[in-house]
């Protein structure tokens, strides 16, 4: 997707990876950027608007665990922008002690947001098509015991996004892409020892501090490269500053796909 002139919605745009990715998008001269996030950040909005005066930037407060709020922010985005071309579901939480919240934010949040966005973008319903990018994780493509609840939620994101990229949804004109960052330096990975539910023989903090990690900027730059190049259904691992396309082996073919 050529980003210049496009209308973008970013969920979780004030987070560590979100902020850096929004700046990369603004650098590509998007026409509009709508940030949906839990808490406002007036300072960031002011900085972005003064640095990128040609882009219409606005914020909508929303809690992704509340379905009526998701409906309301998308409705507001359509009223402000007319349509949107790109949606990035980039919100998330990592705290395995909060099982319900992890599933609500990471999995139900992505599902609900994707389906509400699709309803507006779907060409067969009069929309313009476009792209929906769901941020999963390396923990969403390989089991990651230290964060097993998070890993389960992110596997769900990967599976859901792959399903919607299938042939049954071609008429929507919407491309579905999964992005799987590796360990990235944001506040999400701080104090890991307080966010696990099992005791390991290696302390969680030690295990995490030994993992190679990337900066949020490197991750953001690669997310935007993926958006520019990705095809429908593609899955991308963005780890230690590198981009790698993920290919899953076919273990079983659903009857309707045979
Ligand atoms: N940091 C990493 O190592 C890493 C690795 C793989 C994947 N990811 C994923 O990347 C994405 C961004 O993570 P990050 O590292 O920037 O984390 P972050 O904590 O800095 O940002 C998370 C964002 O999600 C928002 N959010 C959380 N709960 C919400 C709610 N209930 N409603 C609305 N918004 C909510 C936060 O406000 C914040 O803007 C997440 O999906 C995360 O799971 C991160």
UniProtKB/TrEMBL annotation:
A single Gene Ontology CC term: cytoplasm
InterPro entries according to UniProt: ADH_Drosophila-type, NAD(P)-bd_dom_sf, Sc_DH/Rdtase_CS, SDR_fam
Reactions catalysed, as given in the entry: a secondary alcohol + NAD(+) = a ketone + NADH + H(+); a primary alcohol + NAD(+) = an aldehyde + NADH + H(+)
SUPFAM superfamilies xref list: NAD(P)-binding Rossmann-fold domains
EC number(s) recorded for this UniProt protein: 1.1.1.1
Molecular function as annotated in GO: alcohol dehydrogenase (NAD+) activity
GO biological process, one term: alcohol metabolic process
Stretches of the chain forming a coiled coil according to its record: none
Keyword Glycoprotein: no
Record keywords, A-Z: NAD, Oxidoreductase
PANTHER family: 15-HYDROXYPROSTAGLANDIN DEHYDROGENASE [NAD(+)] (PTHR44229), ALCOHOL DEHYDROGENASE-RELATED (PTHR44229:SF8)
Similarity remark: Belongs to the short-chain dehydrogenases/reductases (SDR) family.
Subunit structure and binding partners: Homodimer.
Protein name from the UniProt record: Alcohol dehydrogenase
